[in-house]
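Quick one - first record:
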Amino acid sequence: MGHVTFATPLALLGLAALIPLALVFRRADRARRHALAVFGPLSVQSPASSLPRDRGTRLAHGLALACVALCVIALARPQLGTTSQLRRRTSGDILFALDLSRSMGAADVQPSRLDAAKRAAADIARAFPDDRVGLIVFGGSGFLQLPPTLDHSTFRSFLDAAATADIPDPSTNFEALAGLVTATLARSDAAPYSAVVMLSDGEDVEGKLEQAINLLISAHARTFAVGIGTPAGAVVTDRDARGTATPHLDWAGREVTSKLDEQNLRDIARRTGGDYAWWDGDASVEPIISELAQLQRRAVASTTHGPPADRFQWPLALACVLLVAYPLAARPRPVGPS
């Protein structure tokens, strides 16, 4: 079932108010008993009046403290479990391939190439709310992060969380990517209904581009490429354990500059039947969106998961019960043996 989380955990600081409130109750109880003792013996007072028992007073104070605590917990919005729903759609599959190589940290596109690539992917996915979307991340190697799903909120979570540190080999290898795409489409038997959207700066420093293209063609993987970066390029940076950025140096101690290689991306897109676009803002991917709209589609079903379910009603309902019980516990009764 999962564990309890809080949407506004800072509200739990209000529980600290229980300590001074408990001290106030304790002091008031002592003052009450002292006043009764000064007034006269309880054995004389009890036949003429009803007074609260010590046990009842302590119970009432406990109920009041518990009621306050439950209200604070309700304000913190406890969440437990998620809502899920089986969705059926006439859908195609759009498999996004996100480049996480070291060069994607370059800042010739602000705030970085990787951030621009994520924005481009989000724009394209948003245009197809009824299509399944999946995510592959790659550098020197590749990983299927999310198989195609109708759950776009989960896709966006994986997309937002992607970072260059996720790939152990920070280089770029399109051949490794093509092999993973081929395996993914073969596993899902969805090639006729699928398209690949590659988001990269186009630099392939390890693989064999021709072999990569041949693999994509054999898998019938129609590939669309979005070029991220500029022809002028920018210095590639590394980050140390404290997050400080320093220029990446080659074997000779020279700063490495990464430039957008549009030719590689154009070749991949043209020969696999896709299209190429250079990222220059949201409007720049409209041609790719128009092409993807022509994708073949078929009936699919997928389970989607909503946001965590709010459970503030539970502590609030219990607080109401304690609020009703409070006057019953605090009601004066004839004093007898406690």
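second record:
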Amino acid sequence: MEITIEMIKELREATGAGVSDCKKALIEADGNYQKAVDYLREKGIATAAKRADRLASNGTVEMYSHGGGRVGVMVEVNCETDFVARAEEFKKFAHEVALQIAASAPKYVSDTQIPQEELDHEAMIAKNRAIEEGKPEAVAGKIVEGRLNKYKDEVCLLRQAYIRDDSLTIADLLNQTIAATGENIIIRRFHRWELGEGLGE
């Protein structure tokens, strides 16, 4: 069954989930609206969207050291109540996020934080590479878009594939934790240090 823009829009308005999540849900449900809603609810995406505007001022600062002290990570993860901040599920999530940052070295929490000049620079590199590879002008735009998306997947924590299960992103893991705890959870900020980094600059 063909998934139309109208179907995605209707599902998005009802659940508050993102466009790509709604499209994926409709594909999984073969266009069946109710099954798509159930799919989003099972994944915790629909409930996550509804909780996104609630204030998250409690939480934890998780610290993690890796490789005998060669890599250090500090990440602030917020939730709504002190009760959830002490819950095992929340603590486990914060720890997993710290592990992810240590292993995958993201630069930003989300793609909205990437400076425009950085995106422009990456787009220029991708375009020049496409021209050098002899790609026709007509497809160069698609190639640039694809490479920019790949770049965002690499540098944005929420878009990265989860190191323990690459069928999930960190955003998926976050949404599952929101569904499990019943609270809004935000990865607010992080810093990653690597022994000796910047010394050769």
